[in-house]
Amino acid sequence: MTNPIRWGIISTGRIAQTFADDLRRIDEGAAVAVGSRDRERAREFAERYGIPHYYDSYEELVADPDVEAVYVATPHPMHRRDALLALGQKKHVLVEKAFTMNAAEAREVVSAARGADRFLMEAMWTRFLPHVVEIRRLLSDGAIGPLVALHADHGKWFAKDPTHRLFAPELGGGALLDLGVYPVSFASMVLGAPRRVEALVDPAFTGVDGQTSMLFGYESGAHAVLTCTSRARSASRASIIGEDGRIEIEGDFYAPTAFSLVSRSGATSRVEIPVEGRGLQFQAVEVHDCVRSGRHESSIMPLDETVEIMATMDAVLERLTRG
């Protein structure tokens, strides 16, 4: 018996829709409730994805005794509030990235989860995709030798709409927390926490960060060169460079895609692992495996690393406020 996790979903936006759709592809989890501030939206969402219960308040959703774990899919500024709400009802919690607005909020949520003795994880779904799992295996095996550098970018074009979540300060707008979190987290996964953080941050028309270039330095001597922008659709590729070769990840590097292992001599082998759907189901499997084995955090996306990633992005955004 798989004993699936019974999920409650907070919010009915695009990422919540993708999660609900991908959840139907696995046996390890099932959505049993959805909550929205708009009852009609909750009803429509529930009908579309075959979810038995819907609520017009998050408080009702987290109080549902049939809900075992809560997926927080609201905008960044609400993550702290909604995660604490769920933890207060002794639910396990998966929080969309960026985890919170800053490291201080992240520490508060992590502390609450540990105090409640409940599972908590940042929904950095990229880490659980098959191609990234294989890349971690290659790195662990020393396939490209000691690491020298990492390059990653994530750029998308958005129309200049001040009410859009990428531009509205009240919705946690800005390219870094929405787009840049992917390359920053990817660099953290491969190289750990940076020793030095340098950044050039330019504002969008509403004052939030619009384009950012980052240079991270590590104790090993490796460098990470990362960029994000809300002004243009970039290649969104990534590469990991070692003394003996490199791994080149095709765009979009953070989503299901292929990669090539290139030796120092130039010999190339391409790896592509087919994935059904968008790929959010793999993080739900990780939640299931951790919870059912009695673990309250993931070794693949540890809580202390999530806090460190938020602290790194705090340091980057300081450049915007300094001017």
Written description of the protein model:
Strands 8-9-10-7-11-12-13-14 form an 8-stranded mixed beta sheet, covered by helices on one side. It is built from 9 helices and 14 strands. It is globular and about 60 Å long. Strand 5 (92-96), helix 5 (103-116) and strand 6 form a beta-alpha-beta unit. It is 35% helix and 26% strand. Helix 4 runs parallel beside helix 5.
CA-atom Rg in angstroms: 19 Å
How is the biggest beta sheet arranged?
8 strands, mixed
The overall average pLDDT, rounded, is 96
- Treating each run of at least 4 consecutive H or I residues as one helix, how many helices? 9
Secondary structural class: alpha/beta
Shape: globular
- How many beta-strand segments? 14
* Termini gap: 57 Å
Per DSSP, what share of the residues sits in E-state strands of 2 or more residues?
Answer: 25-35%
- Please give the share of residues in helix: 25-40%
Sequence stretches where pLDDT stays below 50 over 5 or more residues? none
**Topology as a string of helices (H) and strands (E):** EHEHEHEHEHEHEHEEEEEEEHH
Q: Trace the largest sheet across and list its strands.
A: 8-9-10-7-11-12-13-14
